[in-house]
Design brief:
With 191 residues, the chain is of the alpha/beta class. The chain contains 6 helices and 7 strands; from the N terminus they run E-H-E-H-H-E-H-E-E-E-H-E-H. It has a single domain, classed as Flavodoxin domain (Rossmann fold). Helices cover 38% and strands 20% of the residues. The longest helix has 19 residues. The protein binds flavin mononucleotide. The site of flavin mononucleotide has 19 residues, from helix 1.
């Protein structure tokens, strides 16, 4: 069975992003084996001098190297992350830093860097408080994920989002979440 690597960067109890992600992963679970990493409370360390020195000495915790290898071997990636400070929660960036390993997710020759991941499609699920749409210059999450996808070789990025949720009525929020699930399910049936 092909594999999905699911990065759950939702943080709040009752997360609206998770409400959208749940049914989509259920749909994907019919065709894929899903490995989930839940970032809230996982405690991945910010990469600094100590970790860089270890890496220079060839030391990477096996737990992280193993996960990075599984990411590189996955057929699809799904990321669920709320829109925070015009991007995504820093826990997700820290996770990417820990997983971004030379000779595992990417490599280079004497001229350029290239990705080593097998994945060909990435699904990014998000909800935003303000009325900011995917691709807006104030939306700095998808440009980053696209760039990382280029570095690691993850393939095409698909986005399912709901916007303006902090300024919508409960009924509007419910409708927007239902619409996002509907759009996401259509995508997932052919993902
Ligand atoms: C720490 C934090 C930072 C946020 N920053 C932004 C922001 O910069 N722009 C925005 O549109 N919404 C922002 N929001 C609102 C969230 O994007 C919005 O409420 C979203 O639906 C939360 O997703 P969740 O229900 O999955 O947690 C922020 C919320 C939190 C808690």
């Amino acid at each position: 069975m092909e594999k999905v690597f699911f990065i759950d960067a939702t943080m709040r109890a009752g997360s609206r992003t998770r409400m959208i992600a749940g049914p989509l992963l259920e749909e994907l679970g019919k065709r894929y084996e899903i490995e989930t990493v839940k970032l809230d409370g996982a405690g991945f360390p910010a990469v600094g001098s100590r970790i860089l020195q270890d890496r220079d000495n060839g030391i990477v915790p096996e737990e992280y190297a193993g996960m990075s290898r599984r990411i590189a071997a996955a057929d699809r990636m799904v990321i669920a992350a709320p829109f925070w400070d015009m991007s995504f929660p820093s826990a997700l960036k820290v996770f990417f830093e820990n997983m971004s390993l030379f000779h595992i997710t990417f490599d280079s020759d004497d001229r350029h860097c290239y990705g080593l991941c097998k994945c060909s499609k990435v699904l990014y699920i998000t909800t935003r408080g303000m009325d900011i749409h995917t691709g807006d210059e104030l939306e700095q999450a998808t440009p980053y994920i696209k760039a990382l996808s280029r570095l690691w070789g993850l393939g095409e990025l698909y986005v399912v989002s709901a916007e303006n949720l902090d300024y919508s009525s409960p009924a509007e929020i419910e409708r927007k979440i239902a619409d996002a699930i509907e759009r996401g399910l259509r995508l997932c049936r052919d993902f």
